[in-house]
């Protein structure tokens, strides 16, 4: 993440007591309206996994409308966001609009969101809905999206079982006790109404999509190319998973739609059109986050911007259950544990290793020996021959590079800050899309196998 901004004290929306009374009433009304719109916008974005800078959730928009005078005035003293905690986790559940034989909707989208206040950080772990898991209190393994359905007739029970199932899965993969502090459940019907109120959304549909499931009220018929989609069509686009990508493609399309929504919301006229969607959308959302929490989330998202919100997917592979159902299984538990760790505790420093010697595959060898629990080697390749091994990094990451140098048995003088990084050749592999924290260029002097890596120094 870039930058450190103090967000421990979000600005209080309190009228200036020195302002004239009539001006104060006008300002209060504008704040209530603007706050409601902003809250609603984040409700849309949160459903697809990003807490962006465009507002908060519709549930607290309703709270803001009902309690606006008390919240905006000085009669109510807002509690610290997140109960004063610097770090929380939120389980986001997007439920479908259908009811199956048990009479309960299923969780179509499952995401664990980590929020840190100072320094600001938001990270999202997407869990494929077909991930094969144990559901507490129910014998045998099943798809994780069934946990919400099996939680009983009451909403609180369904959310509790879904939360327990997710926490158990993450614990089994990491050995770490996972606490889920809050939840946000959004039903897709609210999303449809909001898109319709916006007058539809333009999406570049990448392929022909045809699928019908009357039991889910799902009818998808889309053609390739730029399309203007209404609410139902847009919902079908992001829920479509009947191709080779399955859940992975759906997660990608969710992100694509979020970007289109954000772009359209830049038009001030769109915000006014959203007001009419607030009331009907209320019944589609349930959360235990407070208004103070929501305002803090908006502030954090504003500071970070969408590009600095970390998003990853739990690594799974396609499989078949004994009953012949298509499922997703976690087969690489090490990779899964590292993905979860990055979301919960922050991303590991990224490393690229380049071979500047004539020794074949040296970069691959060194890259695999670097401790993946501490560093994330994102690519290996070759570089022009050089006599001396060097580590290239920015000034703010010097301590990380020095720790890696020590792990590689190199002197701290090998670390170069803000120097030109040699160009890497990655062959058939894809080059890194973002600059790594550290680039290691192995020179002909490199002969020592990596020692036990040490954690980056603070």
Descriptive account of the structure:
- The protein is α/β, with parallel strands linked by helices and 458 residues long.
- The chain has two domains: 79-288 and 305-343, 3-Layer(aba) Sandwich (Aminopeptidase); 348-442, Alpha-Beta Plaits (2-Layer Sandwich), CATH 3.30.70.2390.
- The chain has 14 helices and 19 strands.
- The chain has helices spanning 21-47, 58-66, 68-72, 146-149, 155-174, 188-197, 231-239, 247-264, 268-274, 278-282, 291-304, 333-345, 362-369, 398-407; strands at 87-95, 107-116, 121-126, 132-134, 141-143, 182-187, 201-205, 209-213, 218-222, 225-229, 285-287, 310-313, 317-320, 326-329, 350-355, 376-382, 390-393, 415-417, 438-442.
- Helix 1 packs antiparallel against helix 2 (58-66), helix 6 (188-197) packs across helix 7 and helix 7 runs antiparallel to helix 8 (247-264).
- The two termini are 16 Å apart.
- Residues 1-77 and 98-103 have low confidence and may be disordered.
Topology, pairings included?
Blueprint: H1 21-47, H2 58-66, H3 68-72, E1 87-95, E2 107-116, E3 121-126, E4 132-134, E5 141-143, H4 146-149, H5 155-174, E6 182-187, H6 188-197, E7 201-205, E8 209-213, E9 218-222, E10 225-229, H7 231-239, H8 247-264, H9 268-274, H10 278-282, E11 285-287, H11 291-304, E12 310-313, E13 317-320, E14 326-329, H12 333-345, E15 350-355, H13 362-369, E16 376-382, E17 390-393, H14 398-407, E18 415-417, E19 438-442
Parallel strand pairs: 1-6, 3-12, 15-16, 15-19, 17-18
Antiparallel strand pairs: 1-2, 2-3, 4-5, 6-11, 7-10, 8-9, 13-14, 17-19
Helix pairs in contact: 1-2, 6-7, 7-8
């Amino acid at each position: 993440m870039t930058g450190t901004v103090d967000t421990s004290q979000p600005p209080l929306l309190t009228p200036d007591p020195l302002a004239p009374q009539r001006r104060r009433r006008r300002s209060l009304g504008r704040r209530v309206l603007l706050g409601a719109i902003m809250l609603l916008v984040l409700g849309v974005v949160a459903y697809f996994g990003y807490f962006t800078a465009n507002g908060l959730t519709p549930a607290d928009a309703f709270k803001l409308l009902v309690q606006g005078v008390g919240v905006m005035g000085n009669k109510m003293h807002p509690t610290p966001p997140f109960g004063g905690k610097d770090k929380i986790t939120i389980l986001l559940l997007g439920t479908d609009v259908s009811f199956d034989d048990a009479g309960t909707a299923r969780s179509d989208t499952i995401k664990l969101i980590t929020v840190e206040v100072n320094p600001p950080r938001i990270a999202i772990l997407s869990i494929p809905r077909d991930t094969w898991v144990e559901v507490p209190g129910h014998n045998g393994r099943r798809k994780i999206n069934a946990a919400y359905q099996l939680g009983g007739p009451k909403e609180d029970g369904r959310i509790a079982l879904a939360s327990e199932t997710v926490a158990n899965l993450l614990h089994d993969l990491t050995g770490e006790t996972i606490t889920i502090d809050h939840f946000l459940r959004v039903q897709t019907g609210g999303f449809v109404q909001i898109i319709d109120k916006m007058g539809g959304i333009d999406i570049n549909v990448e392929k022909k999509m045809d699928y019908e499931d009357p039991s889910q009220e799902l009818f998808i018929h889309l053609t390739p190319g730029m399309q203007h989609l209404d609410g139902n069509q847009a919902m079908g686009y992001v829920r479509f998973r009947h191709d080779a990508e399955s859940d992975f493609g759906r997660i990608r399309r969710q992100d694509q739609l979020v970007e289109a929504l954000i772009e359209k919301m830049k038009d001030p006229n769109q915000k006014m059109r959203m007001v009419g969607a607030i009331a009907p959308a209320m019944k589609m959302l349930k959360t235990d986050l407070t208004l103070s929490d929501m305002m803090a989330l908006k502030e954090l998202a504003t500071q970070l911007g969408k590009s600095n919100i970390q998003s990853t997917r739990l690594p799974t592979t396609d499989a078949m259950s004994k009953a012949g159902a298509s499922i997703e299984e976690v087969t690489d538990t090490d990779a899964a544990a590292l993905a979860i760790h990055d979301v919960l505790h922050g991303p590991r420093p990224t490393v690229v290793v380049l071979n500047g010697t004539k020794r074949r595959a040296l970069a691959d060898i060194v890259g695999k020996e670097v401790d993946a629990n501490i560093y994330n080697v994102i690519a290996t390749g070759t570089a022009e021959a050089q006599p001396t091994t060097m580590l290239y990094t920015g000034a703010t990451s010097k301590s990380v590079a020095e720790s890696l140098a020590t792990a590689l048995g190199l002197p701290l003088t090998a670390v170069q800050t803000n120097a030109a990084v040699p160009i890497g050749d990655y062959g058939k592999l894809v080059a890194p899309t973002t600059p790594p924290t550290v680039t290691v260029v192995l020179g002909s002097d490199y002969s020592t196998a990596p020692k036990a890596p040490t954690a980056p120094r603070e």
